[in-house]
Amino acid sequence: MNKILVAYFSASGQTARLAKTIADAAGGELFEIVPAQIYTPNDLNWHDSNSRSSLEMKDASSRPAIANLKPNLDAYDTIYVGFPIWWYEAPRIIQTFLQSYDFSAKSVVLFATSGGSGMGQTQNILAQICKADFKSTGVMSSYASKNDVLNLIKKL
Fold first, then answer.
1. Over the stretch 31-47, which tens digit does the pLDDT of each residue have?
2. How many CA atoms lie within 13 A of 91 on its CB side?
3. How, if at all, do strands 4-8 and 133-139 pair?
4. Which among 39, 66, 108, 134 would be 20 to 30 A from 101, CA to CA?
5. Please, is 62 exposed, middle or buried when counting C-beta atoms within 10 Å of its C-beta (0-12, 13-18, 19+)?
6. Which of 26, 36, 33 is closest to 3 using CA atoms?
């Protein structure tokens, strides 16, 4: 049996909306990746080069702490990992998540939301720090329908 987890980080609610649709379409369990220190609107101000998110994304070694690591992922075969795109890649907290577990026998499906940019080199960056069978849906609308998601899942 292929047990599915849909893990996601959402700073504004857009990725959360898409994650819920994916979990519903795929029959997966939903899991929110919550930062130990919640991001404030000032932290997320990408116009400010000294905002928390800007500083994290400038530092490739930054690994923001996660408040609620899931105790065990052994039961899951496929793990969808969702996030907003920040500076053409996944936020650093996604690297924290992927480095917190052994994904070597897992299928990891990346999905993202974005205000205007694509995924850039996200999959390549994440594959360098985590050994898994990576697939990607690419950037999707947070308002994607269940049917749209089902069709995309079938193509994977």
1. 999 999 999 999 999 89
2. 27
3. unpaired
4. 39
5. middle
6. 26
